[in-house]
Amino acid sequence: MAEQIASGKGLPGYWFSPNPDKAWGEKFFLTVVPFWFLYNMAMVQMGWLNTGTFWNIMQNVLMWIPYCVLLPWFLRRNSGVVWHDSYWFKFNVYMFWWIFLATYFHTEYFFEVLGLRYRFEDVTLFLDSALVGPDEATALAQHMKVPPSMYFNAIVFFIVYHVTAVIALRRIRTMTMNWSSAAARFFTYCGIVLLIAAFWGWGETYMYFVMISHGDDTSAMNVWYENLDAMLWVGSWFYALYFVVAFPNIIRLDEERDGERWSIGRVFIESSFVAMITLLLIDLATHLLGGPIY
């Protein structure tokens, strides 16, 4: 029984990975959730986003690097696991590269299909795809350019979404391990992936743009959707396509106690795969929608 508890097997369901290094990382990243919420509330309410390029970038770097990179490095310095082999580090690398590709290419779909808009009046540096998305000659005037700060901001958002999803998915999967029907296990797992993906696809929009925004007054906002209702009830499913691919992929990262450990190169490959498949899905979804939803 002690061996079962240590390995996480033979139990009616467990929340954290049987790999102790990963389990520590998951528990740590759960503490990011309240920090992320309070930090973003402060940024919006205090108007910190209305700054020039340098401080616009720095305030988002400070949301990610000190808490999500430097703090776990310090806390795990005597863990016996080299920092670059640690789950907390590989999880950060995965999120960084996944977010970079998604922000560079996929945000253009959010602009043109879902009606997302960015307005940072004092920012002078932007980074996004030259060919995907709106005409570069008019993109800035239409609030369809991505400032570098959004790359760093989104990393912490995705850390929160992915760590909570992985823990919930593991709990459901391990609760059904003793089911005799493989088909029932498979479809239950697919169903919970879709449910959690839809929750975060809808949840980000609701929490950020409804609870924190200034109502319908977009003139005071840095980020908004042209049609918030359409985004909530249609665009959320579009957004959920991200997580339908990413959640089942990242749960495999260093999952088993004595299983395979991903190299940093493998982390880049897996996150690149997720970004590419997601790009395909949102492009196919754009065909299905037939154009902008706003």
How is this structure best described in words?
This protein is an all-alpha fold and 294 residues long. It has one domain (19-289). It contains ten helices and two strands. The chain has helices spanning 2-7, 20-30, 32-45, 53-75, 87-114, 136-139, 149-175, 182-211, 228-250, 264-289; strands at residues 116-118, 223-225. It is globular and about 55 Å long. Residues 1-10 have low confidence and may be disordered.
Using DSSP, what is the number of strands?
2
Averaged pLDDT? 90
What is the overall number of helices? 10
Separation of termini?
Answer: 57 Å
Percentage of residues in strands: under 5%
**Unreliable spans:** 1-10
- Written as H for each helix and E for each strand, in order along the chain, the element string is HHHHHEHHHEHH
Strand order, largest beta sheet: 1-2
Shape verdict: globular
Name the structural class.
Answer: mainly alpha
Largest sheet: 2 strands, antiparallel
Q: Tell me the radius of gyration.
A: 20 Å
Q: Say what oligomer this is.
A: single chain
Task: Count the domains.
Answer: 1
Secondary structure: helix percent:
55-70%
Ordered list of secondary-structure elements with their pairings:
Elements: H1 2-7, H2 20-30, H3 32-45, H4 53-75, H5 87-114, E1 116-118, H6 136-139, H7 149-175, H8 182-211, E2 223-225, H9 228-250, H10 264-289
Antiparallel strand pairs: 1-2
Characterize this entry briefly:
With about 290 residues, the protein is mainly α. The protein has helices at about 1-5, 20-30, 30-45, 55-75, 85-115, 135-140, 150-175, 180-210, 230-250, 265-290; strands at about 115-120, 225.
